[in-house]
Amino acid sequence: MRTGGGRRQEADGRERVGPRGAARRRGGFPVSRHQQRPATSTPQIRRSEDPPRRVAYEAIAAVHRDDAYANLVLPTMLTEVGLAGRDAAFATELVYGTLRQRGTLDAVLASAANREVARIDPPARDALRLGAYQLLFLRVPAHAAVSSTVGLVKSVAPGATGFANAVLRQVATKGFEEWLVELAPAQADDPVGHLALVHSHPAWVVRAFADALGGDLTEVAQALAEDNAPAPVHLCARPGRADAVDLADEVGGEPGAFSPYAVYLSGGAPGNLPAIGQRRAHVQDEGSQLVTLALADAPVAEGPAQRWLDLCAGPGGKAALLGGLAAERGATVTAVEIAEHRARLVEQAVRGLPVAVVNEDGRAVGRGAELPAGQFDRVLVDAPCTGLGALRRRPEVRWRRSPGDLPELARLQRELLVAAIEAARPGGVVGYVTCSPHLVETQVSLSEARRRSPHRTELLDAREYLPAGMPGLGDGPTVQLWPHRHGTDAMFVALLRRG
Ligand SMILES: C[S@@+](CC[C@H](N)C(=O)[O-])C[C@H]1O[C@@H](n2cnc3c(N)ncnc32)[C@H](O)[C@@H]1O
Fold it and tell me: Where is region (Disordered) located (predicted)?
C-alpha cells in the first residue's frame, strides 16, 4: 500500500538522528518518559511531530500501557488531534497493522536488536514496532520509516535514539519474506509454530483454529490471514424501520450476501450516517445477525412464541435486532445484562422497541419476578468468551487473551446456559452463541451445560435456520461461521429445544 504518510515524510526530509551512545540509560535500557502520564490521555502534538505517526504511537502505547482498546482509543485521539481523511486513514492503518503483526514484528526486532523484545523499554519498543511495520508491511521508503521512527523515539524515549536507529537499519536489510525464511520454523517440522510466526498469532490460537477446522492447515492459514485484513463494516437494517436494499443505496454500500438485514459499508465512519442517528440501522457483523435470526426462526414446540429473553445483552446489538423482530411478530424481549454501564448501553440500543432491560446476573433465573423459570419461549445466551472469533476487529485481543482465561469463561458459559435452559418453557428454544471458535467455549461448554441441566434438551440442526444454500456450514447440528468462509466473524451457534 502506498500511503500519503510515506510521501509526506519524504518531503519533510527529517533525517536528523540523535548521536549514538548519547542515551540516558537506566539499567542499560532507555528511560521511559511515559510511565508518569495519566491513562490514555492524548498529548499535545505539534505539526512538526508528524501527527499521524505520533497519534498511532500514542494509541499503541495506550493499548499496551493502559489495556485500552484500539477501536475505542484511536477515534478519540484522531478527533482530539483533528486528523481526518488520508492522515486519519494512515494513522488507522499504522495502529491496526502494528497491533495485528506484533508477533512477527517482535520476532524480527528481537533478531535485529539481538535481545528479547521484552527487555526493551516500552516506549522505545512500541516506536520500534511502528517503524518495523512500515518497513516490512507498507511501501513507505526505508529512509522515511527509519527517520520518522527515530524522530519519534527522540521524543518519547530520548535515551534510545541511537539504539532505535541501529535496530531499524538492521530490520531494513531484509524484506518481510526474507525475514520469514530466516525466522519461521519449517512448516514440516513445526506447522503450528510456522503458521504462528507467518500470520502473527499466538501458537495456542493457531492450535484452537486447527482443532475447530478439523486439522486442515490450509484452511487454518486462510482463517489466520483473514484476521490480518481490515474488517469490513456491516450494518443491520432494523426490521420494520429500514429495507437493506434501500439502505445500501442510501449509504453507498451493498446488500449483504446472507442476512436479509445486512448491508456492507464500503468505508467511512458509520457513526455519521443519518440511518444510525435515526435508529433505522445499527452496526452489527452479519454473523451476529444470522445467529440471532436463527434463534428467532427456530420452531418452538406448540404453544405461544411471544416471550423472548436475551440473557447476556450488553451492549445491545442482538437485543436491538431481536427487539425489531419482536415488534413485527407481536412479541416482547427481556434483555438481561450484569454490568450496569452495559445495561445502560442496551437501553439506548433498544429505545422505542418492545424490550425491557434488566440489570441482573443472568444466572439468577427463578430467583425473582423479572427472571422467572420455565416461562420464556425463546432464550438467547450470547455468552462472554475469549472473542477469538473477532480478531480482525480487535487487533490487540490475540495478545491479551491466554489459555488461562478459558477455565473461568467456560464455567460462566456453562452456568449461563444451564440458567437459559431453566428459563425456557418446555418446548421453548435456546440459542447458545459465542464469538469464538475455541472448542472449549463451543462444544465443551454446550455439552457440559446439557449434562448438568436437570432438563432434557434436544439439539436442533442450526443449519436449517440459516439461509438456504449458505456454503461451508459443516455437518451440523451446530454451526461455526468463519471470516474466510462467510465473510462474517467466527460466530458459533447451537439451538436447543427444552423437553
Ligand atoms: C458477548 S457479550 C454480549 C453481546 C451482546 N449480545 C450484543 O450482541 O451486543 C456478553 C455480555 O454478557 C455480560 N455478562 C457477563 N456475565 C454475565 C452474567 N452472569 N449475567 C448477565 N450478563 C453477563 C457481559 O457483561 C457482556 O456484556
Answer: 1-52
Convert the pLDDT of each residue in 214-229 to its tens digit.
999 999 999 999 999 9
3-state secondary structure of 125: helix
CA dihedral 432, 441, 385, 472 (to 10 degrees): -70
114-153 per-position pLDDT tens digit: 999 999 999 999 999 999 999 999 989 999 999 999 999 9
pTM (2 decimals)? 0.91
Residue nearest to atom 6 of ligand 1 (CA): 313
Torsion of CA 351, 428, 256, 276, to 10 degrees: 0
Query: What's the pLDDT score for residue 468?
Result: 95
360 alpha-carbon distance from chain centroid: 26
Distance CA 56, CA 43 (A): 12
431's enclosing H/E stretch is: strand 424-434
Point out the catalytic residue in the list 45, 55, 338, 435. Answer: 435
Interval between CA 382 and ligand 1 midpoint (Å): 7
Give residue 314 CA to ligand 1 midpoint distance, Å. Answer: 5
**Ligand 1 atom closest to the CA of 342, numbered from 1:** 27
Binding-site positions for S-adenosyl-L-methionine: 312-318, 337, 361, 382
Question: What ipTM was estimated for this complex?
Answer: 1.00
